[in-house]
Design brief:
Elements: H1 2-37, H2 41-48, H3 53-64, H4 70-83, H5 87-99, H6 102-112, H7 114-138, H8 148-157, H9 165-201, H10 204-211, H11 219-228, H12 237-245, H13 250-262, H14 265-275, H15 277-302, H16 312-325, H17 331-360
Length: 362
């Protein structure tokens, strides 16, 4: 009975997380499909198919203005990679987009104060640039998608270049929902289940009791917690503000938001399986290490003497302002999008399931 209740709670937590991410995933699949054929591979390759700093700058700044969670960046980032972007710009985009956006900045200013928000802004810009530079330098074989040049040449000679805009959109949507969505959904569902397990095994009351106590809190354990949790930069700012208000060091806020927003199970699993093991290790290591270093630096700069800035007037104004920028999907739409993602998951794993059954009964 206890095991049944635990599994039930884990599944409910996973469904809750999936509901929050699924509308953005569907939206991202659609945008990825448009990028695939409407924006030609040749043009995309010219813009981001290099290791220049200007390419990293473009995707970092554009990512900072997109209020999309880390799961939503998975299909967009992979689509960029498939369309000709080098590894550096891809990882820079996948870092900047979930870490920081206008909604997160407004909430951070109201709940965490101007000092933490300023550090948050600086880190949100510099960390993606650093990851992009490192990825371009040490990306190895996965620096660009294998066979990319041949694909671009073939595309340029293909009759598809004469297709109408309508046909290009149709072709891109077929690719996005018949190929990309199946690949990504497999790893997203697995990541949500793992996240649900963590949340169920270590509920919020446990986290706040032990991590909200400054005598037991460290940047190391908050980084580990943030990495295994499914974190949205906007949704978890009130949670981390509560920890800071209860006595946690200010560096905890930066470490949690950096490590949590930019690293989670669905994203790391997707990078590992689709781009490569070295990229996943490099990405996770850099984000987590930077989160620890910046957290320590924040503590050094702001302590002693740091005082939480939470007051109810600031909170109300900040949440009201941020809510104007946030798209809140209706509950029926969330469940519909989650059902679609789960169908993609089933379609994605079906070939392996069939192979397993055939091997078992042959």
């Amino acid at each position: 009975m206890i095991i049944f209740d635990f599994i039930k709670s884990m599944l409910l937590a996973a469904i809750s997380m999936l509901n929050g991410a699924s509308p953005w995933l569907i939206f991202s699949f659609t945008i990825a499909g448009l990028l695939r054929d409407v924006l030609s591979p040749q043009r995309f390759h010219r813009s981001l198919g290099n290791t220049k700093i200007v390419s990293l700058l473009k995707v970092t700044i554009s990512g900072m203005f997109l209020p999309i969670c880390s799961c939503g960046t998975i299909p967009l980032g992979l689509s960029m990679y498939y369309s000709g972007a080098y590894l550096g710009p891809v990882l820079a985009f996948m870092t900047s987009t979930p870490i920081i956006n206008p909604c997160a900045v407004i909430l951070s200013y109201g709940l965490l104060g101007k000092e933490i928000t300023l550090i948050y802004l600086i880190v949100g810009f510099t960390l993606p640039m650093i990851i992009g530079i490192v990825a371009n330098k040490f990306g190895g074989d996965e620096l660009k998608m294998p066979g990319l040049e041949e694909q671009i040449i073939a595309t340029s000679l293909d009759d598809k270049v004469n297709l109408t805009l309508k046909d290009k959109i149709k072709s891109g949507m077929i690719w996005a929902y018949n190929d990309l969505a199946l690949i990504v959904s497999k790893y997203v569902i697995l990541g949500m289940l793992l996240g649900g397990f963590i949340i169920t095994a270590f509920p919020d009351t446990f986290i706040q009791k032990y991590l909200g106590n400054p005598s037991m809190l460290s940047l190391g354990n908050i980084a580990v917690l943030a990495t295994v949790m499914y974190v949205c930069a906007v949704g978890h700012i009130p949670f981390i503000a509560a920890l800071v208000a209860s006595g946690a060091a200010p560096g905890v806020a930066i470490t949690f938001l950096m490590a949590g927003a930019a690293t989670n199970f669905p994203e790391l699993i997707s990078i590992y399986n689709v781009i490569g093991k070295r990229t996943a290790i490099m990405y996770g290591t850099i984000v987590t290490t930077a989160a620890l270093l910046v957290g320590a630096l924040t503590n050094k700069l702001l302590m002693p003497g740091f005082k939480p800035v939470i007051n109810f007037n600031n909170i109300d104004k900040s949440i009201e302002s941020a809510n104007r920028l946030i798209f809140a999907a209706p509950e029926p739409l969330k469940y519909l999008c989650s059902a679609i993602i789960f169908i993609f998951f089933l379609k994605g794993i079906m070939p392996k399931v069939k192979d397993s059954f055939e091997k078992a009964f042959n």
